[in-house]
Amino acid sequence: MTALEVVQRSENRYRVGAQAFRLGQSWQPYPRLLELARGELRRLAAATRASSVLAVPCDGRILIAAASLTRPEDGDLLRPGSTVPQRTGRFCPTWQAEHELVAVEAAVRLPTGRTIGSLATVLTVPRTPVTMSDTVARAARTLGAALAG
Questions:
Q1: Which GO terms fall under molecular function for this chain's record (predicted)?
Q2: Could you tell me the pTM of the whole model?
């Protein structure tokens, strides 16, 4: 596997090799989704002043596919590639309470109505999510429309 650059040996340990890294970078949950989501996530994070993520379903959990993080401490939980427990396709309420976060989510839908993921703004508990719902929903609709175009 080292000869194929899938893994790289470093001292007595192995880590991801260059070829595995390149393969991972080309992964897409839906064509053009990551490319378009990154700009929308930056705008959403700026508008809400909170970390924003693109979440897609993955093996019974939620995979953070892309993120625009506003707080360094969100990096451990919400970095792209991390997974989060889900309940009925949404961030698990128990997980949110455990980490003192509230995820304000909106589905990203194709013109066919098919849901391919969600955008979420993740707030610390003292902040009120009520005013964020419209902003997140608008960003999710904008992303869905851009995928159709």
A1: DNA binding
A2: 0.81
Cα separation, 44 vs 138, in Å, equals 9
Q: Which residues make beta-bridge pairs with 38?
A: none
pLDDT digits (tens, 9 = 90+) for 111-125: 889 999 999 999 887
Query: What size, in residues, is the chain?
Result: 149
Instruction: Give per-residue pLDDT as tens, 24-67.
Output: 656 667 888 999 999 999 999 999 999 999 999 988 999 999 99
